[in-house]
Structures are given as structure tokens and as C-alpha cells.
Design a protein that fits this description.
Helix content: 25-40%
Order of helices and strands: EEEEEHEEHH
Number of helices: 3
Structural class: alpha+beta
Strand order of the largest sheet: 1-2-3-7
Oligomer: single chain
Largest sheet: 4 strands, antiparallel
Number of strands: 7
Mean pLDDT: 92
Strand content: 15-25%
Radius of gyration: 19 Å
Length: 148
């Protein structure tokens, strides 16, 4: 089994780490990595709704004057940008056979930086999956004992 962490691709733009620069997409994650024989991605989730100088926007990348995270901070600090709804990042396994862990809410954590998709985070998720499997097995054993 390959254990090495490898970035497969990365669509993160330089100096644009905030998730509001990216639209939610079910098709392709912002970043995709392989680790321990598996593949994960990180996606922006949620609706973005912004007002910048009295105009409405639904993605930060639509505002030509705001090109970087620093520009975002300055516009917000100067009261030029009002954030009504913001999005966030979530990590998901790519392979369908691991989707049951997503359905079990193991992957419901919110992340603020696309580079949080790293070895340490993935090791943490793998441990959560193992704990979930153990708990499901324990619960099934208890159910089986009650039916006997």
C-alpha cells in the first residue's frame, strides 16, 4: 500500500486562500491528494453573498478590485465589503466506497484553508473512521444479543 502523501492537482490561486474566491462545485475539488492508497479532495461549500460598494456579488472572484486575501481584509476593514453569507471548505474521500463515512457525519468538519488537506488531517480522519467502524460493530453485537 502506498503511504506517501502526494498532491494530484491544485486549483488554489496564489494569495487567494479564502473560500469565498471559489464557487461550490460537486464535480471537482479545489485540491486533490492521495495518501495511504486513498484519494481525498477539499471543496468550498455554502452560499456566498457579498455587497461591495453597493453592488451585490455571489463569488469574491467577481470583484475585480479584490484580487488577494489581503485585499479582502482591507475592503472589509474599510467597510467597503459586507459579507452576508460566506462559504467554507470541507474534506471528502473521493472513492464511493468511503461515502458511508460522509453519510455518518465524520467529514462534517469545517476548514478555513485549502492547505489543511494535509497528512495530519487525513490521519485524523482515518482514526475517526476506525473508531466509527468499531462503534458500529459494537452496536451490531448488542443488537444481535437482544434478538437472541
Amino acid at each position: 500500500m502506498k503511504k506517501k502523501y502526494k498532491e494530484i492537482y491544485n486549483r488554489v490561486e496564489k494569495d487567494r486562500l479564502d473560500s469565498m474566491f471559489y464557487r461550490m462545485s460537486d464535480d471537482e475539488p479545489l485540491r486533490k491528494v492521495s495518501y495511504k492508497g486513498r484519494t481525498w479532495g477539499i471543496w468550498p461549500y455554502g452560499e456566498v453573498k457579498l455587497t461591495y460598494n453597493e453592488s451585490r456579488y455571489y463569488c469574491l472572484s467577481q470583484i475585480s478590485e479584490i484580487k488577494t486575501d489581503d485585499d479582502l481584509t482591507k475592503a472589509h476593514d474599510n467597510d467597503e465589503l459586507h459579507i452576508h453569507y460566506n462559504n467554507w471548505y470541507e474534506i471528502r474521500p473521493i472513492e464511493d466506497k468511503y461515502f458511508n463515512f460522509v453519510e455518518s457525519c465524520i467529514y462534517d468538519e469545517v476548514f478555513g484553508d485549502p492547505y489543511e488537506l494535509d497528512k495530519e488531517t487525513l490521519d485524523w480522519f482515518i482514526e475517526l473512521e476506525k473508531e466509527h467502524i468499531k462503534n458500529v460493530r459494537k452496536s451490531n453485537r448488542k443488537k444481535n444479543r437482544r434478538t437472541i
